[in-house]
Design brief:
Helices cover 64% and strands 0% of the residues. It is an all-alpha fold.
């Protein structure tokens, strides 16, 4: 991951951004967990917005999937 993460954004910061997106989008998270996988991109887009598009979307996707799997 490290080569895809700008130094200002550590994995811990990215994980916190993803947690914030999950907390602020409960309805979308419920849809995703009920099988509507197409809404996942909305969460990715919101996280990228918070990260000011300075993080590779693959890193964001991986972190979101990890958090949503819990």
């Amino acid at each position: 991951y490290e080569k895809h993460v700008i130094k200002a954004y550590t994995l811990e910061i990215i994980k916190n951004i993803c947690k914030e997106v999950i907390a602020n989008n409960a309805g979308i998270v419920e849809k995703y967990k009920s099988g509507q996988e197409n809404v996942f991109q909305v969460l990715v887009g919101n996280a990228l917005k918070l990260a000011k598009n300075k993080v590779n979307s693959i890193v964001i996707q991986d972190q979101l999937k990890e958090l949503l799997a819990c």
